[in-house]
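thread from #wetlab-drylab

HS: before we spend reagent money on co-crystallization trials with FE2/S2 (inorganic) cluster, can we at least see a predicted complex? here's what I'd submit
DV: go for it
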Amino acid sequence: MADRSPAPDTPELRERWGSFEFSPAYKAKADTAIARYPEGRQRSAVMPLLDLAQRQVGEETNTQGWLPLPVIEYVARYLEMPVIRVLEVATFYFMYNLQPVGRFHVQVCGTTPCMLRGSDGLLETCKKRGMVKGHVSEDGLWTLTEVECLGNCATAPMVQINDDNYEDLTPERLDHVLDELAAGRQPKTGTQEPGRHTSEPVGGPTTLREMVTENHDYRGEW
Ligand code: FES
């Protein structure tokens, strides 16, 4: 479990992020999120607003983005909420980074199904590239985090990198994904198993086979 403490509140942090505010594009998205809720319930938009703030910080720092304390305070002001309430949300959910991260945030699932299918080897692959859990690599490219189940157990082992999942990984397949990202290319997302489409049985479907190509109506066969 990674450290969930906010980055220290220093004069340098205030200097860099104290004047943070949404860009016009992000402000429009934030206001759209707030408008989804009834009048007086704008606080319900705290999660999307934190996500938008993190993404804007990411664009400004060429990283996956994180939430410096002054940015969390800005979101609190924007929603007219006590800062502690926003901080509670930001520190609870793993999707918010409380410390600076690299260009790519490599989140390796280490829960039982992924562990049984080889997540230790994936962590080794990351470490061979200089990744250390909870730290930004020297080249600024990577931050490694070990996470709990991300809901892709049927295609274990898997890794989430920024907004994408990479599944059915082996150390070699993960190496290829990381090479592609480092080179500025977008690798194939989802399962990396040749011939597998999503999470259907390896080797092809064993039930409801007619549904593979069209929306087959089985009712007459019951
Ligand atoms: S255990 Fe890794 S995705 Fe569920």
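DV: The pocket of FE2/S2 (inorganic) cluster is lined by residues 109, 111, 113-114, 149-153, 156, 158 (CB under 6 Å).
HS: ok that's useful, forwarding to the group
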